[in-house]
Write a structure and sequence with these properties.
CATH superfamily of the largest domain: P-loop containing nucleotide triphosphate hydrolases
CATH class of the largest domain: Alpha Beta
CATH topology of the largest domain: Rossmann fold
Number of strands: 8
CATH architecture of the largest domain: 3-Layer(aba) Sandwich
Helix content: 55-70%
Largest sheet: 6 strands, parallel
Radius of gyration: 25 Å
Distance between the termini: 70 Å
Strand content: 5-15%
Number of helices: 18
Length: 328
């Protein structure tokens, strides 16, 4: 059986230009899997990647004919010799449907046999990277891969350096960048707790929406330790349409242990009693947002803190519609 390694170990292999011939990237963290898969491209000089890096998407190979066509293309790509480079890289996204397909014909069976031969004896000059979600460990193809592929469980953070890198990747995926010290501060605050990291980064991205760079000050505002001073500071910030201040007060409120139901009740009071005079043009939208978040909370449709912060931003937006409403 081949070893299961961490993403950090794989990155060391890539840096040393000593990759294994076949990888299976697993886990529910799609951002992490995609980022790691694309890092394999670094095995090929940038100017030669057009000839030696091939990316395939097995999103729909459920039928026999499509499976035959896809496997033929994959085998051809994996058996092609590198051009002016010591190595070739073939990345297969959405590989789950390829590894657990529906068998509908003898041709499909032959295609799977061809795929198994490729996985059993990959070309030493080519690195194949399969990116998949959770797989049935009882399946024939999974059992084969445990013998011949290096398994990588993504979404696992081992140390603070891993946490910092995860933060930077997640922020970059949102189209922004984060200062090194800001990423370090956030990592120090949360350690290797992936759930807390994800929640804090989601809040941070909401708080800095529209900014190109996330700063240390932003992290301190949204995630830094502080003591709640004013029970009504949250609603006061929404009343003036200050989303950043409102999100900061939301963080303080939740960190102080306030239950989500209490916060939602406070926001409901604000909409019912203040919005009719304060922001009549935004009243209908504010009420719709309240009802939607109430349903989401009751049905566990998301992390309560993230749902409430989204509501805060929407209420601040509706509050600011007062001016445009008066002009109509």
């Amino acid at each position: 059986m081949m070893p299961q390694v961490s993403p950090a170990a794989v990155r060391k292999q890539i840096t040393a230009s000593r990759p294994d011939p076949l990888y299976l990237l697993l886990g529910e963290d799609d951002v992490e899997k995609s980022a790691l898969a694309h890092q394999f491209e670094e095995l090929v000089d940038e100017g030669l990647r057009a000839f030696n890096v091939e990316t395939l998407h097995a999103s729909d190979v459920s039928s026999g004919d499509r499976l035959v066509t896809f496997v033929s293309g994959l085998v051809s790509a994996a058996r092609t010799l590198p051009m002016m480079s010591p190595r070739r890289v073939v990345i297969v996204f959405q590989a789950g449907s390829l590894l657990v397909p529906k068998r509908e014909s003898e041709a499909a069976d032959r295609a799977l046999d061809s795929l198994e031969r490729l996985f059993t004896d990959p070309d030493p000059q080519t690195t194949i990277v399969l990116v998949a979600g959770p797989l049935d460990k009882r399946g024939r193809m999974y059992k084969l891969l445990t013998k011949h592929a290096t398994l990588v469980e993504c979404g696992v953070i081992e140390d603070l350096a891993d946490a910092e890198r995860w933060i930077r990747t997640r922020v970059a995926t949102a189209g922004a960048e984060i200062e090194i010290q800001a990423a370090r501060l956030l990592a120090d605050r949360n350690g290797v707790d992936l759930k807390r990291l994800r929640n804090d980064v989601d809040r941070l991205l909401l708080y800095t929406l529209g900014q190109k760079t996330v700063t240390v000050a932003d992290v301190r505002d949204i995630a830094g330790p502080a003591t709640l001073q004013d029970d009504w500071a949250l609603t006061n910030a929404i009343e003036v349409g200050d989303a950043k201040a409102a999100l900061r007060q939301m963080a303080l409120t939740m960190d102080a242990g306030a239950p989500p139901e209490k916060v939602l009740g406070q926001l409901g009071w604000l909409v019912r009693t203040k919005f009719p005079n304060l922001a009549p043009a935004g009243l209908t939208g504010a009420i719709s947002s309240l009802f939607r978040i109430d349903v989401d909370l009751k049905s566990s449709a998301g992390e309560p803190r993230v749902l409430l912060e989204r509501l805060v931003v929407e209420l601040c937006t509706e509050r600011r519609t007062r001016t445009s409403g008066l002009r109509r």
